[in-house]
Amino acid sequence: MKRMYLLFLPVIALLILGACSPAERTPSPSPTVASTPTLAAPGVHVTPAPDVTAAVQAYLDAWKAEDYPAMYAMLTQLSRDAITEEEFTARYQQVAVEAALSGVDAEILQALTTPRHAQAAYRVTLHSVLVGDIQAETMMNLSLEEGGWRVQWDDTLILPQLANGNYLVMQRYVPGRSNIYDRDGHALVAQADAVSVGLNAAEIGKKKQEDLLTLLWQAFGRRPDLHPSILGPRVDLYRSYGWYLPIGELSTDAIAPYRRSLESYSGVVLQPYRARYYFSSGIAPHVLGYVSAIQSDEKDDYLRRGYALDERVGRAGIERWGEPYLSGQRGGALYVFDANGKVVTKLAEREAGVPQAITTTLDKDLQLAAQTALVGYNGAIVVMERDTGRILAMASSPGFDPNAFEYLNPNSGGLLELLGNRDAPLLNRATQGQYPLGSVFKIVTMAAALESGVYTPESTYQCGYFFDELPGVRLNDWTYEHYLDDGKTSPSGLLTLPEGLMRSCNPFFWHIGLDLFTHGYETAVADMARAFGLGSRTGIYGLMEDEEEPGQILNPREPIDAVNNAIGQGGTLVTPLQVVRFIAAIGNGGTLYRPQLIEQIGAVGEEPSYTFEPKPAGVLPLSPENLETIQNAMVSVVSNRRGTAYFVLGSYSKNYRIPIAGKTGTAQDTPRDPHAWFAGYTFAEREDLPDIAVVVLVENGGEGSEVAAPIFKGMVQSYFQGTRSVFPWESSIGVWRPTPTPEPEDANP
Q: pTM here?
């Protein structure tokens, strides 16, 4: 401050000299003159200068707000003649970018004013995300122009060290990006040496093609999409055009046993590179997400956030959500250089912090099983610990290889094909896909019926082929559709309410929806759906909010709306994640848990900054008696010979002593085939393996019992037994038969 006050001395001296004038001498006597009584006494009116501190504060406030046009408008005319607004703005922006500023604060220390000029001393604090706060005291000169104070601008108004053409240079200290692991510590994503594998198809000899493709299939861990029966036709197509066919990427360790053999074939292209590597061509790619390079239009933004321009940034999934942890606390050293490019001084320095690894709740093997189960279909699978909310697997099909987003990867040329794919492989169908729920929604309708008091477990209904309770409208039960196909399927007949769920009787639930609507319970079903967590985001921990869609639950306006909504059609839209959450709640006694993907966050060798704990987020509004009724009805879907999932799950559940409760669903998607659903939970109560809830959705897959239920069974097998049986449509796990094998004729929605 001593130096600041010395700068004021010239101004103070001028004020003192102005005060010492001849007018202060004692005047000589002079003749008196009588005053004229009709004239007013002469006076002098002095217009005070405006408050200079207000002008200085306005300039500093504009700087804090980065309102550079407003700042420029406060300059003197001479200053504006010396620098254009574009140059002025660029000067401040260059400092903000180079110093990685998150903000600016300034405090006026002192101001001194003369009639035409003023000076203000102030302290500026530049908040740098890399080196911390940088403080300096500097001086602002102002001139009175057109009745207001105007700033005489130069670079020292930013920092006094920037006089004489000096400028700032930041040396950035960037920690390496940390890894992502599964729950057992297996690396899912890591910085690694990798090898891209591809084929110059025209050079592949037809005689050796089968052997080569088998070798590739083995090298890539028998990936279903690389089975010779699938890859062979692609090689033939690419050969006819003379194209390069990208196969995938392997770590140097994974390819080592196969490298020499692969190199012995003509047409095989192996190219090493080092980058962030996603193992197995993407384990849970929609959950983990991907990183990519900083784009030109993002440069200044990321520099201000402390990034170096050669870094990769999380763009989706956990890579995006966990960016602050995975990328770590960057550091740097901020230098002042003179106009000749020589270092003048180091303003500040801070070392980089250690990045934190993320351990997910995912089970790698179960996740890969889910991805394989969906081969050939578009759809989603979610597996959640029933009593905690841990997500053990979340698969969305079609998937994608996150390694394609790494431009150092020679196979990244396939990115354009990925981005242009009509099946939207980047869409996470588990959290962003919004679908009618079909007959799985009957669980919600049953809950609303029981809680209304209008229905009891003993309430009955004659379930026939048709529903004729809406004037002029006839709706068909699924049993009638089957009768038209086989000529022998009978209607379900007289059913209690739990039996109605077991048989998935459409007319019974249409009747309930209409009955509640017309007797004062217009929103009972919709309200129950919302209480089950449908129609709103789950708040899944580990993904950004915009990576989850809310779905839609509408109040019925007309009787036909109530009828459609009662079986999960009409305007009803849900996500598979919402469904697995409420299914788990039914199984665990009524608690809606917040789904979580993160088991632990922490740097190696340090105490974790986050450790998983179950997060209850709500309770199903069901009495214990009504909840038990629904549970028993869902058990009968699997265990009763008339249950819609008995033929797929009944004997398995009994023989392997893994009790299962569930519900099939077939949701219309006219004019395409319906969506196939199966949702259920286990209640084995084993000490070694917690019970799980599983939801399977297959887009346009047909009836839930034919496709979704077998996949559900496969996921339960994979979890409890470590492997699964071959699906009816497969020749081997993950490989389709030329013609899918039909399911038993008794299969139901």
A: 0.88
